[in-house]
Design goal:
Number of domains: 1
Helix content: 40-55%
CATH topology: Trna Endonuclease, Chain: A, domain 1
Strand content: 15-25%
CATH architecture: 3-Layer(aba) Sandwich
Number of helices: 7
Radius of gyration: 15 Å
Number of strands: 7
Structural class: alpha/beta
């Protein structure tokens, strides 16, 4: 089992093409042979994509009070004026409501302008999508596998985040699929 610092050092060597290859291995479930523990490849891939696209990134970390871990944060990205907590789920089935509920609780401890994004390789259950639409005043944006792939291939994950956020403001829906139209 590698440390966060080792994962960060490893992913910092990846360029866009390397991330696209890693995404293919994530989709196939082959990341263990590449030295990534379960779920870690997706976490670091998402953060590295944001970093390559110009975002400021805070790598995965734990929040402790009196020596006790109270939160494990998959990462934070700062894009334009947005601060976004990241949660990643690399599972063989669509994500249920738990990661959304977890992220909502984390957002409750943050400034109200902080948003969240959940990245799920296999998407979300209908109940999870419904819940994400009703976590106000927190905003949690949902990302599915096809959007991750699109963002990597088009080197546009930061612009995609802004597009998803604007759509959520205008339409009140957290699951706008960025692959529906070209991102400018």
């Amino acid at each position: 089992m590698s440390t966060n610092a080792e994962y960060e050092a490893k992913i910092s060597q990846y360029a866009w093409d390397d991330l696209i290859k890693l995404w293919s291995e994530i989709e196939l479930g082959n990341t263990k042979v590449l030295g990534w523990d379960a779920g870690k490849a997706l976490e670091y891939l998402v953060l590295r994509a944001f970093q390559l696209d110009g975002a400021d990134v805070t790598w995965p970390y734990s929040v402790r009070i009196d020596g006790e871990e109270i939160e494990q944060i998959d990462g934070v990205v700062y894009v334009a004026s947005l601060a976004c907590l990241i949660e990643c789920k690399d599972m063989d089935k669509p994500a249920k409501i738990e990661p959304i509920a977890k992220l909502r609780n984390q957002l409750l401890r943050r400034p109200v302008t902080t948003i969240g994004s959940v990245f799920s390789r296999k998407g979300f259950t209908e109940a999870a999508e419904t819940l994400a639409g009703f976590v106000a005043p927190q905003t949690i944006l949902l990302w599915v596998g096809s959007e991750i792939k699109y963002s990597l291939e088009n080197k546009c994950i930061s612009k995609a985040l802004l597009k998803k956020y604007r759509f959520c403001i205008e339409q009140g829906l957290p699951n706008y699929n960025i692959t529906m139209e070209a991102i400018q």
